[in-house]
Each structure stands twice: as structure tokens, then as C-alpha cells.
Amino acid sequence: MHLKASEAILQVEGLKKAFRFGESELVLFENLSFQVARGEMLAIVGESGAGKSTLLHILGALDRASAGDVYCAHLRLSSLSDDAAAEFRNRELGFVWQFHYLLPEFTALENVAMPLLLREVSRQQAEGEASRWLREVGLEQRSHHRSGELSGGEQQRVALARALITQPKLLLADEPTGDLDSRTADSVFDLIARLHRDYQLTSLIATHNIGFARRCDRVLRLQNGRAEELVPETLAG
């Protein structure tokens, strides 16, 4: 798919990530170039170790590429200072990981409200928004439970609400259903797909689940250090 720059919310140009071990260099991937249009859901697939998580970290300004550029929200991510990168993440991005990273000493409501509290939004307003998002993910009745009192699927729903409470433009999800049984994983992916549609998100989802990848608009496969775009319907598995 060829997009005009004005249509792309994310542009990746000649991206390379390598790790040095003494005199040797391990190239995870190189010369990755692609664009993501506003409103798309892009699946990133590939074997374990292919670089899916590393790619998401670079796109989310959590890691730096060895070469190449990423442009998002009119910013060249490699040029950002650490503080500017943190501001970019807080303003533009929502993250969901395979492990939910909820703070165990806080309730579901407090976990979801945390990104707004860090922005110095009043507690009343932050918790009001958190309550609305817990209702959106079907967990309003569990708002005062701590993470250890929630099932794996419920914890991931809380993590999704926390990621979206700041109304980000981009949702980056790294194996968001990887820790869940198949039935729970299906329900969580259904929720992600609905929220993507309802809130007009742009979503990049790294997944081993070929069934979920088929439901995305586009699929990017990382293999042998290269990226190949696939038609979702042609995925086997």
C-alpha cells in the first residue's frame, strides 16, 4: 500500500536495529520501510526473536534504532531528547503488553486513573474518567478490586482501559493476549477491535495468533531481518 505522507500517521524509513557483542554485530532487522495510515489496524507477526517487540519499542520511542528514521505526529523520533520522548509517549501513545504491569497495591480504578494523575489532573476528574473506561471494558463492578483479585482477562482489560484513558492516537499492543487462554484471548481481542473502531484508533499489534492477524487491515511479517507485507486472508495457520 502506497500512502501520501499526509495520510500516514506513522512513517518508517530504512530502520535497522543491531546489537554489538565485542567485535561482532547481531542484526535483528534492517532496511525496514513502511507506513501506517490513520485508522488502520496493523498486525506484526513473526517467529520469537524476529524483533516484533523491539520494533514496537522503537516505534513507541522506548528504544532507539541503529539506523533509519521513524516519523510520528510530525516528529522525528530519533531526534527527541529523553524528556521529549517521554512527553511524546504520554501524549500520543497507549501501550498494552503481554504482562499487564498493573500496580498491585492499587485498585483497578486507581490503576486506570494513574496516567491522568501523572498529568496532574484532579483526582475527582481522573477517577471519573477511569470509571467511564472501566465501564467501557465491562469492569465497572470490579473497580475497587486490586489486581491480584482479578482474573488474567480482567487484568488485561484494566490495562487496556489504562492505555486508552489519555485518548492516544496510536495503540501499540505487544502480544496482548499471549498470556491468556484461547477463550479469554478471543474476548480480549474482540474488545480491542471494538475500541479500535469506536475510538478511531490506529493500532499496531504484535501477535503470534494468526487468527487475530487475519482480522487486521494489514499484516507485516518480520523474518530473517526483513519485513514482508502480507494480505491477511492469505495467512496460513
Mind explaining what this structure looks like?
With 237 residues, the chain is of the alpha/beta class. The chain has a single domain (5-231), classed as P-loop containing nucleotide triphosphate hydrolases (Rossmann fold, 3-Layer(aba) Sandwich). The chain is 33% helix and 28% strand. It has 7 helices and 10 strands. The chain has helices spanning 52-59, 82-92, 108-118, 123-136, 152-164, 182-198, 210-214; strands at residues 8-21, 24-37, 41-46, 67-72, 75-76, 93-96, 170-174, 202-206, 218-223, 226-230. A 6-stranded mixed beta sheet has the order 6-7-8-3-9-10. Strands 2-1-4-5 form a 4-stranded antiparallel beta sheet, with helices on one face. A hairpin with a 2-residue loop joins strand 9 (218-223) and strand 10.
